[in-house]
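INSTRUCTION: Work out how this chain folds

Token vocabulary: learned, describes local backbone geometry

RECORD BEGINS BELOW THIS LINE
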Amino acid sequence: MLPQVIIIGRPNVGKSTLFNRLVGKKLALVDDQPGVTRDRRFGDAELIGLKFQIVDTAGWEDDEAETLPGRMRKQTEAALATADVALFVVDARAGLTPLDEEIGNWLRASPVPVILLANKAEGRAGEGGLLEAYSLGLGDPIGVSAEHGEGMADLFEALLPHLDPLQPPEDEFPEEEDEEARLLAPLKLAIVGRPNAGKSTLINKLLGEDRLLTGPEAGITRDSITIHWNWTDPKTQDTREVHLIDTAGMRKRANVVEKLERMAVADARHAIDFAEVVVLLLDATRGLEHQDLTIASKVLEEGRALMIAINKWDVAEDASGLFNGIRAALDDGLAQVRGLPLLAVSARTGKGLDEMIAAAFSIREAWSKRVPTSALNRWFDDALGANPPPAPGGKRIKLRYITQAKTRPPGFVVFGTRLDLLPESYKRYLINGMRRELGFESVPIRLNLRSAKNPFKKD
């Protein structure tokens, strides 16, 4: 386990910019508007050889506990309880505020070591705020610029005495896994859907804790948050590792007008690219809407394995009719991938969640499957014999053999002649046969056609 460092401060002092600087990539959304970050975000950081886990938190605000800012503050308090070091960030250009002093008083009462950072200290404009930070009584402040990378060496020196004794052995950082180990690797599972479908509530139920911020307000989640979790199969008692990815709600493009929501939706789409399996969460009280099909099509275009879960099943009306109606609408609206896994779940009661995780592991196995070339071509010959390709205009289309070019998603190449004349309907016939008879179930399949070049044909 890596030692954990938490970033704390009031809104808009540059916490997420510092987080991105330490992880070496733009993982957290950053904007001039305060209060962008709402949930805790974890990242693996390395500073001059010092390895640690960095935690970005929501801006600390002095509001009532039941309000959204109050619930965000509760998330920060929970994060501090597990941290090894706290980085308290103030704005050197704006100077200290009463809220900074309140946070400083709270941190002084904590047993966690605190390092005080005066951010935005580049140039002469930050000198006054840097000197003012001494009054917080948290030791010498370190002047940094998270945006420009200044002061990182001083931060390293401050972190070293706290984190050096906690560094794990070098062999705990293995080389990248090979192809055969992928099925034993953690399942990367993204939860997507429209706003207020219950994505964060579902993940909290899986974890057994209020890890993610939830509430009646739509659009609470902004950043895509990845959480490492161990799932125990209730049937076999085997424990499997899962990386759960919570994402922002995705509305119709025409309805997304605010810059921050556009950034959040783009981050959700980026999260889909890095997932292996994607669960599209529907709201049982609203059924299947056109936007759900748009999201599903996007997931399939990216080649991810897709499954559908109908949430709020505990309050669904005419459950049987609803399920059958959604099943029919999915098969009609996503004809390219019929028979997608469809499950009824409840994030409130926990109904169907174990079945959902088990199905996700199963569909990842199909998504990662490779068929030996000999077995693949035996199936191919049988398929051609049962339904030979057409001969448009009396010209015979010759399909010679097939090979699997890739996995995740499975991709195949068919070799032959006059393949430019092969109709789409015959390609669908082959793809449906592979799903049905080769164990690819409902995962997206890529099928390419390649004709042998005629050496006597002049260009």
Remarks:
- The first strand starts at residue 4 and ends at 8.
- Residues 202 and 347 are 4 Å apart (CA to CA).
- The chain is about 30% helix and 20% strand.
- The chain has three domains: 4-172, 182-366, 373-451.
